[in-house]
Amino acid sequence: DADVTQTPRNRITKTGKRIMLECSQTKGHDRMYWYRQDPGLGLRLIYYSFDVKDINKGEISDGYSVSRQAQAKFSLSLESAIPNQTALYFCATSPLDRNYGYTFGSGTRLTVV
Amino acid sequence: AQSVSQHNHHVILSEAASLELGCNYSYGGTVNLFWYVQYPGQHLQLLLKYFSGDPLVKGIKGFEAEFIKSKFSFNLRKPSVQWSDTAEYFCAVTLHAGNMLTFGGGTRLMVKP
Known about the structure:
The structure holds 2 protein chains of 2 kinds.
Chain A: E1 4-7, E2 10-13, E3 19-25, E4 31-38, E5 42-51, E6 54-57, E7 64-70, E8 73-78, E9 87-94, E10 103-104, E11 108-112
Parallel strand pairs in A: 2-11
Antiparallel strand pairs in A: 1-3, 3-8, 4-5, 4-9, 5-6, 7-8, 9-10, 9-11
Chain B: E1 4-5, E2 10-14, E3 19-21, E4 24-25, E5 31-38, E6 44-50, E7 56-58, E8 64-68, E9 73-78, E10 87-95, E11 102-103, E12 107-112
Parallel strand pairs in B: 2-12
Antiparallel strand pairs in B: 1-4, 3-9, 5-6, 5-10, 7-8, 8-9, 10-11, 10-12
């Protein structure tokens, strides 16, 4: 099994629908992150969480919300999806020691029509 | 806020050619530097990282990068590329005292057989 698992892998949804992307990890890391990837823009941080009770906005949090249900689970929600949220979404984890860097999930490709 | 620039968006090389991908960052303090690779359809994987010490860092698959503090640069190099190096490459930076990665826009490398 993958260390960081994202579901679904692909999703097509309609404008205005609510959608949740899920991330679970077996790394035992405290810190979890949600990024979106757009061509030419790299990865941009949406939200991050340093532990279950600590949730923080990233640079592009508008239109998104998150829930840290447990140390191992971090979900991203789009309350009312819009077409410019079409992107590849990655979840990542890291331990307290930054020397280990991030571990990424395989991504969720979301298309909003 | 820190930023990361990758000036080459697309690079096309023939096998055995040498590779150098540029990366510049904007923060003047102490930083940690990373290069990640994303093979087609896959998640990001760590190629190499620099925290301190020898500014020439060697990573996996024959890649290396050189940190030049005076130029705020961390360029990725490989003496002889292979078709299997076709991928997108991301430079990333985090502040020395922090844990938040800021990514560049990525460079898409295509190696022709």
